[in-house]
Write a structure and sequence with these properties.
Layout (H helix, E strand, L loop, with lengths): L2 H4 L4 E9 L5 E10 L6 E11 L2 H12 L5 H26 L8 E18 L2 E9 L3 H7 L3 E3 L2 H6 L9 H8 L6 E6 L2 E7 L9 E7 L2 H10 L11 H4 L5 H7 L20 H13 L4 H23 L6 E5 L6 H10 L4 E4 L10 H14 L7 H4 L9 E3 L1
Parallel strand pairs: 1-4, 4-6, 7-10, 10-11
Antiparallel strand pairs: 1-2, 2-3, 4-5, 6-12, 7-8, 8-9
Length: about 400
């Protein structure tokens, strides 16, 4: 379908694709979207999550580390991810019982391999940078629908940090007239959105709270000698005590004191951060299990500190989503750290937390083709609202 025809349709079948900083795989969701802007209504129809093969995940993380590969490696991975995203779309269509030709639009976040939100000197200029890969031309060719991708860069061109991207969609779907609500996503990184009661879009607050699962997953891989990717249910962390000494040192992280708008990523919580953490742990004679329990508690404390330090008041409800919402030990630590706040998951509210971020990019794609600004400058720090995303057809 050509873009001019698509813009006239009020109801559309839209696929949203999301690949997170954990590089676990690709989430794909099919939604029906009616309208656009503040009149938007969305219904989830089907969802699939397809894990990457171990070698693919390892190669993505190597590329994201910044000191591996070059243009050849990036070019190949860019096209490989495009093929894997196509596989996810086709599997999603089969699950939903729809033909690929019935899809009206696709929104793809892509795989972030570099994100530097703050300007730094480079060849005589001061620049910020972000890079998401996963070529969408394959989707256009094989599905036959327009694709919106590369959402972050326009916000950065307007002086923003290119993140967080989901606050606009959370404003559309979660705001409540009489309540202060916060939404905490725990993916590779953690990010929070605060929706004040009766507030307008320019009154919301959103920023990255710090590490989400990235440190937890790294410690699990070390503890299991590469056999496990994550701590299912938080069972491993629950079996060991927290080291208050290591926790106190980790909480000295200057990012936690930095005021919003702010965003972070693997570029900060990287191998160097882990090595420093393990040096501290070795000096305290801690086991890998104690380190895991401590970083799990640390992740919860970073969220609690963000709520207390950077929100205007405590929310009545904190809705937790992302992979971290299934880590019961992490949730228990979070509830202990914020006893005044009701902490729930998307599933507690009858929503699908797994599909939430992928669905956000379906919504952002729909806004893009209608020329609706969707970057929430109050969250990203951009100088003005912009239409995010590049359209391929």
């Amino acid at each position: 379908m050509m873009l001019a025809e698509l813009m006239k349709k009020r109801s559309k079948l839209v696929i949203g694709l999301m690949g997170g900083t954990s590089a676990d795989g690709v989430d794909a969701v099919l939604v029906r979207i009616d309208g656009w802007g503040e009149e938007t209504r969305m219904e989830q129809l089907a969802y699939v999550s397809i894990p990457f093969e171990s070698e693919v995940r390892r190669r993505i993380l190597d590329i994201a580390r910044g000191d591996f590969g070059g243009s050849r490696e990036l070019g190949r991975m860019n096209m490989l991810l495009g093929e894997l995203y196509l596989d996810a779309c086709l599997r999603l269509c089969r699950r939903a019982g729809v033909e690929p030709g019935q899809i009206d639009l696709i929104g793809s976040h892509g795989q972030t391999v570099y994100h530097q939100p703050v300007k730094e000197p480079y060849l005589g200029r001061e620049i910020s940078a972000t890079y998401q890969i996963g070529d969408v031309s394959i989707l256009c060719e094989k599905i036959g629908a327009p694709v919106v991708s590369d959402f972050r860069v326009r916000d950065m061109a307007a002086g923003g940090q290119g993140a967080p991207l989901v606050p606009y969609t959370e404003y559309l779907l979660y705001r409540k007239e009489g309540s202060d609500i916060a939404l905490q996503n725990i993916g590779g990184m953690g990010n929070i959105t605060f929706l004040p009661r009766g507030g307008a879009l320019d009154e919301l607050i959103a920023f990255d709270t710090g590490p989400g699962n990235v440190l937890i997953d790294a410690v699990v891989e070390r503890l299991s000698k590469g056999k496990l990717r994550y701590d299912e249910g938080g069972v491993l962390a629950a079996s060991c005590p927290v080291s208050e000494e290591l926790l106190d040192r980790l909480l000295e992280d200057p990012y936690l004191r930095q005021k919003p708008p702010k965003t972070t990523g693997r570029e900060k919580y990287d191998q160097a951060f882990l090595q420093d953490m393990y040096r501290m742990a070795d000096a305290l004679s801690l086991s890998d299990g104690e380190v895991l329990s401590t970083v799990t508690c640390y992740t919860a404390r970073t969220i609690a500190l963000a709520v207390r330090r950077h929100l205007p008041r405590l929310p009545e409800l904190l809705i937790v989503g992302g992979g971290g919402s299934y880590n019961l030990t992490l949730l228990n630590f979070l509830r202990e750290s914020l006893p005044e706040v009701k902490v729930v998951t998307n599933e507690d509210l009858g929503r699908d937390g797994d599909a939430k971020e992928a669905a956000a990019f379906a919504l952002l794609a729909n806004e893009a083709i209608h020329g609706v600004c969707s970057n929430a400058p109050a969250a990203t720090g951009a100088s003005h609202p912009v239409v995010m995303g590049k359209i391929s057809q």
